[in-house]
Amino acid sequence: KLNTQELIHEINRLKKEKKAIILAHNYQRAEVQDIADFVGDSLELSRKAAKTKADIIVFCGVHFMAESAKIFSPDKKILLPVYDAICPMADMIDVAQLRLLKKEFPNIPVVCYINSSAEVKGESDICCTSSNAVNVVKSLDEDKVLFIPDRNLGSYVAKQIPEKEIVCWDGFCISHNRVRSDELDMVRKHRGKIKILVHPECSPDVVEKADFVGSTSQIIKYVSKADEKEFVIGTEMGILHSLEHQNPHKKFYLLSPSLICSNMKKTRLEDVYRALKDEIYEIKVDKDIMAAAKKSLDLMLKIS
Ligand code: 13P
Ligand code: SF4
């Protein structure tokens, strides 16, 4: 069994030897973020995956993210270090359910949050992430839109674009959705005017009371520009690592103990090492599904 130093050394050695790059989401464990070549939100990671010249991408995140990387870089080997690191929200709608929904609302465009399967993306008109959802919906000519699978992000978008009617699917993030608005009230009571920054996957009553709503990287950028010295963070706790590292003189408090994503926490250094050594678990997507999903993802990249 290798110790931490040996693991880090071996990961770096294998990375060079195999021309691999490690991408990590902002929610990953601190030690995984530290070994990564790039850490970011879903949109930034998609862009990186589309651009990289590496032969292998080790994707430290959840399945739909690695799948998106495969769609953008079909000739590269995409590895997900833990095979069952999934996003439960992505499984809250499947392609059969989406087809039924489309039948119920014919000729209405479908906007699909990137937290979804490749098959569902392929059956949608355009994708979005939490950082560009408002712009993506605004870009559509139609005044009625179907938004899947996150009802909370959908409601947030609807509030920003009141002139459009947005029909949301009933999916949600099991971590963000657990945050209660009375937790926010308590923070306000005890910490006064402190800025509360939340992810749009939180429920509408939480989002409504927050000072800033944005993707993980938008929250990180907000903090780096703000003059305040203390913040309450309403998204998954993994983000605290970057925030604290980049802002050593600022203080951060987690809005709720619910803000932990067990799937994002599955990936450890041992898994990254094994992924590189044995080249597992390779993500494969059916060619036709990949082509259809790529259309929706490319349209999104064009807009954002
Ligand atoms: P971001 O795109 O904001 O990083 O969000 C991804 C995610 O899964 C949030 O729970
Ligand atoms: Fe999915 Fe929520 Fe985890 Fe993000 S935090 S990956 S939406 S379960």
Automatic annotation (TrEMBL):
Compartments, record wording: Cytoplasm
Cofactor binding comment, as recorded: Binds 1 [4Fe-4S] cluster per subunit.
Binding site for iminosuccinate: 25, 42, 113-115, 130, 199-201, 216
One Gene Ontology biological process: 'de novo' NAD+ biosynthetic process from L-aspartate
Short name of any one Pfam family annotated for the protein: NadA
GO molecular function: 4 iron, 4 sulfur cluster binding; metal ion binding; quinolinate synthetase A activity
Cofactor(s) recorded in Swiss-Prot or TrEMBL: [4Fe-4S] cluster
Catalytic activity: iminosuccinate + dihydroxyacetone phosphate = quinolinate + phosphate + 2 H2O + H(+)
Annotated binding of [4Fe-4S] cluster, by residue: 87, 173, 261
InterPro entries: NadA, NadA_sf, Quinolinate_synth_type2
Family (UniProt): Belongs to the quinolinate synthase family. Type 2 subfamily.
Superkingdom in the source lineage: Bacteria
Any one GO CC term of the record: cytoplasm
Name of the molecule in the record: Quinolinate synthase
